[in-house]
Design the sequence.
């Protein structure tokens, strides 16, 4: 066998193993749970509550991340200022925090006895053991995925587009909306998909910061964990639902940007 | 009329320019890359704020650092064609052109954009996105977009540089026609003297942040005031020391050997410049017998076709270049390594103080 063919074979085997290893567990969820059991599990007490809570909290969290994160990412990408690298590192840090540490960190900062706990309480806002707390946890863990990607996307947009827009009579604020966001759209969409996936699957920080109360803070991942010791089939079915919803969202975002995973529009 | 004065620091170059452009006139700002050409355009458009400066078009003052006036770019109405055209990638050709027309009603906006595209022969490409347009088409869309707002000033940054040689000739003709028809001042930036001569009514040569000479293209080519300008306009520049000769001509002793005569006056260290097309080439060994006073022996280094001419790179006491016809190259067997005598007239030799 020639070395070229051996190399091609090695590549093929590695690719096959990677795909198999990553796909097998996901496929197993669907193989092990019949469609009937799936529907049945949704009818169970608490399952629909969990799904609805997950979708609602994720939607609110992602909306917050987009509205606050997009201008922040634009500012960081287009201005050079002292301490820019430190700011970017601070934004990226939650990416590498273990979920348990993220939960502790949220408790220590925003929890009842945290740094800002008193201020939050006196403002009449309740975060721990409340749905708002779930949203805070989701924003905390998903924002870095979006903001990081958005900084890269804005950074890759040709700055002369902004100059051109301004010489054509459009202020910077309007140029941001009319040129910079559309030109960065593929990258922003990719970041949104990553943040959505992270928010929907969030577990550790939510459990520690907001707790696991059905209908209030028990999102789908928490509901799965709640069941798996007592009713494995039910946990399996709920997992299948979560995978299907996540896949649907990922697919929708990909279709939205017509298969451009991270790229830009290209100027040529 | 545009009057612009700007002083500012660009990296390690100090920009210090002052220029005026009449309505309907096109000033070609020519110079090597890094000379500060684009920065002049950015100052005019308001994209770069100089340390000190003043920009006024007619009675409107756009920038006056002394009086604290700085009109933002979006209120200056400059038709700026950027070097890579800066078309918006997410918008079709007509939407790019209609982009600045947002104050018009919807229907009129499209109609006006199509009218502009049609003027540049692009009506059929109105719905195409920039990524699917050719270089020449992109250049015309950028031009149409820059003209959409009826600008008070036109700024063109290397508008032909991104085009291939074949498209460039027709694009240059078209651009020259547009510039003739547009009654406002225009500045065109280029690193190519031929392009500057073709499109500019007047050429300002800029080097290291300063305008070193201004004039009509033929004035610059015929009477370069510095070696840099002579070199930039395509001339061969030789270093030497001048002294008045007995016959009323100036003799220049060349560095590296040889002597040439010039009808220009001069004394001391000088640059002697001559255009390659003024230099004739004869086989080595033959004494020049024409009226040409100047001759040096040289070896052919390179033979390059330039349009219908051939440019010879010559290694003499100092590097030289001569332009001859393809026929002469054949007849005299001019190949790299051939020994030749290069001759030219004293009247074609310009002297510039060193």
Sequence:
């Amino acid at each position: 066998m020639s070395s070229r063919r051996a190399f091609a074979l090695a590549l093929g085997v590695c690719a096959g193993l990677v795909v198999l290893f990553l796909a097998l567990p996901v496929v197993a969820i669907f193989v092990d749970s019949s469609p009937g059991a799936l529907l049945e599990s949704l009818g169970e007490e608490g399952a629909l509550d969990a799904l609805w809570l997950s979708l609602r909290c994720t939607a609110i969290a992602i909306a917050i991340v987009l509205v606050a994160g997009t201008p922040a990412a634009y500012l960081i990408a287009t201005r050079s200022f002292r301490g820019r690298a430190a700011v970017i590192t601070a934004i990226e840090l939650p990416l590498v925090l273990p979920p348990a540490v993220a939960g502790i960190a949220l408790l220590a900062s925003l929890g009842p006895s945290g740094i800002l706990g008193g201020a939050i309480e006196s403002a009449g806002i309740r975060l721990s053991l409340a749905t708002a707390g779930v949203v805070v946890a989701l924003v905390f863990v998903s924002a870095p995925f979006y903001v990081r990607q958005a900084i890269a996307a804005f950074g890759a947009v040709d700055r002369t587009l902004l100059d051109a827009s301004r010489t054509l009579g459009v202020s910077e604020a309007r140029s941001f909306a009319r040129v910079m966001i559309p030109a960065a759209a593929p990258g922003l969409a990719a970041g949104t998909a990553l943040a959505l996936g992270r928010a929907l699957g969030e577990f550790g920080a939510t459990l520690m910061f907001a707790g696991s109360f059905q209908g209030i803070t028990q999102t789908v991942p928490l509901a799965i964990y709640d069941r798996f010791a007592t009713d494995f089939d039910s946990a399996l079915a709920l997992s299948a639902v979560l995978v299907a919803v996540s896949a649907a969202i990922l697919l929708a975002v990909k279709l939205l940007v017509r298969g451009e995973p991270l790229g830009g529009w290209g100027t040529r | 009329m545009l009057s612009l004065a700007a002083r500012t620091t660009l990296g390690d170059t100090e920009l210090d320019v002052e220029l005026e452009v009449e309505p309907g006139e096109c000033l070609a700002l020519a110079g090597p890359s890094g000379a500060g050409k684009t920065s002049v355009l950015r100052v005019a458009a308001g994209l770069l704020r100089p340390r000190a400066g003043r920009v006024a078009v007619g009675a409107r003052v756009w920038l006056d650092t002394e009086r604290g006036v700085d009109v933002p770019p979006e209120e200056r109405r400059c038709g700026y064609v950027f070097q890579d055209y800066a078309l918006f990638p997410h918008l079709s050709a007509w939407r790019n052109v209609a982009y600045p027309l947002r104050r018009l009603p919807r229907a009129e906006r499209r109609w006006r954009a199509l009218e502009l595209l049609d003027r540049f022969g692009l009506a059929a490409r109105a719905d195409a996105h920039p990524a699917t347009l050719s270089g020449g088409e992109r250049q015309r869309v950028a031009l149409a977009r820059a003209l959409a707002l009826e600008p008070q000033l036109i700024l063109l940054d290397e508008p032909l540089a991104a085009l291939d040689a074949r498209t460039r000739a027709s694009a240059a003709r078209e651009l020259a026609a547009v510039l003739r028809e547009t009654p406002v001042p225009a500045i065109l930036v280029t690193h190519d003297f031929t392009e500057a001569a073709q499109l500019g009514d007047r050429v300002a040569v800029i080097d290291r942040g300063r305008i070193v000479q201004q004039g009509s293209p033929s004035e610059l080519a015929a009477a370069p005031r510095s070696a840099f300008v002579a070199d930039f306009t395509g001339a061969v520049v030789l270093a030497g020391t001048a002294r008045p000769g007995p016959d009323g001509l100036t003799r220049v002793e060349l560095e590296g050997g040889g002597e040439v005569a010039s009808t220009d006056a001069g004394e001391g260290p000088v640059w002697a410049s001559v255009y390659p097309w003024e230099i004739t080439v004869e086989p080595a060994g033959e004494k020049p017998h024409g009226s040409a006073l100047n001759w040096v022996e040289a070896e052919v280094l390179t033979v390059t076709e330039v349009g219908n001419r051939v440019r010879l790179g010559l290694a003499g006491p100092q590097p030289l270049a001569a332009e001859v016809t393809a026929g002469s190259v054949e007849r005299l067997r001019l190949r790299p390594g051939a020994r030749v005598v290069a001759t030219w007239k004293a009247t074609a030799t310009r002297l510039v103080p060193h």
Observations:
- The mean pLDDT of chain B is 89.
